[in-house]
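hey so i finally got around to running the thing on that chain from the lab meeting. sorry it took forever, my laptop kept dying and i had to restart like 3 times. anyway pasting the input first so we r on the same page abt which one it is
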Amino acid sequence: VALRQASFAVVTSYTCRQQLPYNMTLITVAISLLATSSLDCSSRPIVSSLAANGGVNATLFDEAVDEVKSHYDRRPHEQRVSAPRKARRLNHPFQHLYRHADPSFDDNEWNDEDTIQHPNDVTEFYWNQIMTESSNSSFAQLPVDVETSLSAIHYLHLYGGYSLDEIHQMHTTFPPLLEIDVVRHLRPKMRFLKDCLEGGVASTVTNSKSTNQILDPKLKSVLPASFFGARFERTIAPRHAFLVHLGLPSGRILWDDANDSSLLEEFLLQHRKPKQFAALCNLWRRTYGASNIDNNLPITPQQVVAFDKLFQRGILSAARDDSNHVYSDNNSDNAASKSKPPSLLDTANVTPAQLVRYLIQHGANAYETDVRGASLFHWASGCGNLEGLKELVDCCNKRKTGLESNSQLSSPGNSAALLWKASRDDAIPLHWAAAGAGPKEFGIGGSVDVCNYLLSICSEAEQSIITQRKLINAQTRDGNTVLMWSAWSGSLEIVKLMFRNRADTEVSNRNGCTVAHWAASGGNLDVCKYLATMANVNFDVENYARNTPLSHAVAYGRGSVAQWLRDEMQVEDSGNNAENLALDFVNWGESGLGLISEDEQAERKKISELFRDWADEMGEE
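ok and heres what got predicted. didnt touch it at all, straight out
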């Protein structure tokens, strides 16, 4: 009916413009059927003849059909939007290094457009130097666009400490230098040099508006200009993290070693190809030793490649420990024997918790969130990655930087793990730890170890961030508690833990559903029995829609819970709501309208037969 009304409105406006006869009842139905592909294409001549009998020209009729088609949206309702969607690249921000806003970096307020469009006193000073005073150094004669290169020149001079003559020399040896984007390329590499390689020193330039650092002169002397054009996130960062993982020379030692100052040059020269880099690691291992290697096995290119792949997957992958299903490339022997190849974690000999630490050390944003507003603390808690969660908390506590609003908190990592609310539903990490999550699923069973850890850092916090009881009884935007989510996911041990720590068992959400409704929906019979016997939870309560836990058990196909509610708990089915719902599901499955599997359909029939048996028993009594 709605389709006919919509088509009638479109065709009516079309006929008014074309001055056609207003006899559109049959024509509207025909156009509607054609526009929605309800008729086969071979039926179009027949419908066209019907339209001709109605007094409409065939050509005008075809135009009307095309216009209706252009107005009718065949996409499902949830996919219809008024504007193109923004690209959902869920994992890309988690793969970026040193690109995020962080008050600890002196170049945090840098902006290319402001530098060019709204020049300040410093920018105008460099502009005058480039256009006038730099003529002696032949910088003004360079064949580059001044507006394009101004940002790079300003940034290198202000935050790198390079003079205009040095920038000119760097541009001569590496011509693309002044065409590199500052925010995406120059700034991350400069931050890497100052933060990870510890190459920053206080600037000698007096400027009341900035307290920036510049590069150490010794580091500048051994750093080639081509470094700023290298693939930082794909090669330099993972290869340097691999050196840290093995305990080989890394960080400041690469350029400030009193015995050998050419290590950085060797690293930049040999880091590109896995075979060359593995050979370099073995050479440094024999020369300088490796503190983190316990065996005498040589470092192989396969180990380097496996570490690269894990590192490049980003900090989200490491936090939720989803790399167990990612394997190394199969060889012919594995293919012949059909054996399971080793995982990347086994090949690289690294743990997800170590990856979290290395990624944060190399510029990953520990406070990044996905498109749904869930943080890394949520994912680590939900996936049960206890060691990864500890690394997140420890690294954030040590750095004491990020996006925390209260700068007086001495433990920002603890605060994030306890108080961070997902923007989608205001759930905290403890909610996720109680429900359990995976890369593509939710509510798979929580982790009692993660819950115990979160409760422990709550009680051991230096400041009164939140009391343990408030943490346990925290509610989402819809009023759902941690106990509700743990009961729904079937996590009996977590339900016991919450109850021992005085979780509120009588609270209801905005729909009037209590923990009894959630437990019945989850279908774990042991959880339901524990709540009924030990916590005295009422399983005969109705929500605001007059639905009881029995109705929820029927709706989600929980036959064992439904039978327990009627046989042992003697729950009444007021108004026969649950019985009618069970019958509706059976009829819906038999009609073929619902995509229900055979096993689910059999379970639905079994639940419906339970009500018949109960009715027969009542009749006999």
